[in-house]
From TrEMBL:
Residues 1-12 have a biased composition (Polar residues). InterPro entries: NA-bd_OB-fold, RFA2-like, RPA_C, WH-like_DNA-bd_sf, WH_DNA-bd_sf. GO terms for molecular function: single-stranded DNA binding. It comes from Culex quinquefasciatus. It is found in: Nucleus. Belongs to the replication factor A protein 2 family. One of its GO terms (cellular component) is chromosome, telomeric region. Signal peptide: none annotated. This is Insect replication protein a. The keyword S-adenosyl-L-methionine does not apply.
């Protein structure tokens, strides 16, 4: 499920793997405050983590050193530094984009933590920075941020994930049972399904299309091994133990 956001792509579909249950593809449009208030593990929206973000902000300062160019960026929500590293071994590939101080620029990059202890702050490692010459792009970015928020919420509801990162109660319940959030939503779907023979594998797959069939099988098998669910009428129908 992709949603076009200007020149980038917002994709709330989880690219699932054994150790990456809520890693998402695509670029998440944000305001600078979203970055500053993000958790240590990275930018998260409704339970899905994003490796790449994009924002439009004013360039307040540019500081160049032999190893990097640092841009002090500001929008109406916050300020932060964004760094573009210089490849010293390939100087011919270090064409620094022309951006003007006190003008808008679009940045695409990844969020990093800088400093230690109380001096720890958020910064962005720049993949791409470009001058914004049209005021329409500034307005478009604000709409992209809102679109990402509402589409992310819509997709999370379909996936059975409530709240940004899941509610504390849901996370605590999942942790107490030794389940991941993905396992927890499948477990609840099995538990709350009203049927004498339980919910079928096909119904679970239709309910959670963002979970691949292989991953769904793994989730169910693990819960069967843990004694939380069991097969009923056949190997493709499931009921909860309690």
């Amino acid at each position: 499920m992709n949603f076009s956001t200007g020149s980038d792509t917002f994709n709330p579909r989880s690219a699932r793997g054994a150790n990456d249950e809520h890693k998402s593809e695509g670029v998440l449009p944000v305001m600078l405050r979203h970055i500053q208030e993000s958790p240590e593990e990275g930018i998260e929206l409704f339970g899905y983590q994003y490796a790449t973000v994009t924002f439009v902000a004013i360039v307040r300062q540019i500081v160049q050193t032999p190893t990097k160019v640092t841009y002090r960026m500001e929008d109406h929500t916050a300020q932060l530094d964004a760094h573009r590293w210089i490849d010293e071994e390939h100087p011919d590939q270090n064409d620094i984009p022309v951006v003007r101080i006190n003008s808008y620029a679009r940045v695409v990059g990844s969020v990093r933590n800088e400093g230690k202890g109380s001096d720890r702050v958020k910064a962005v490692m720049i993949f791409k920075i470009s001058q914004v010459d049209s005021p329409n792009e500034i307005t478009t970015h604000l709409l992209e941020v809102l679109n990402a928020r509402y589409k992310g919420e819509e997709y999370a509801k379909k996936a059975g994930i409530s709240g940004i990162g899941g509610s504390r109660e849901e996370i605590a319940e999942a942790n107490s049972m030794g389940l991941s959030r993905a396992q927890m939503v499948v477990y609840k779907a099995i538990k709350h399904h009203i049927s004498d023979i339980g919910i079928s594998r096909e119904e679970l797959q239709a309910k959670f299309p963002h979970i691949s069939p292989t991953e769904m099988t793994r989730i169910i098998d693990e819960m069967i091994q843990e004694g939380l669910v069991y097969t009923s009428a056949d190997v493709d129908h499931f009921l909860c133990v309690t």
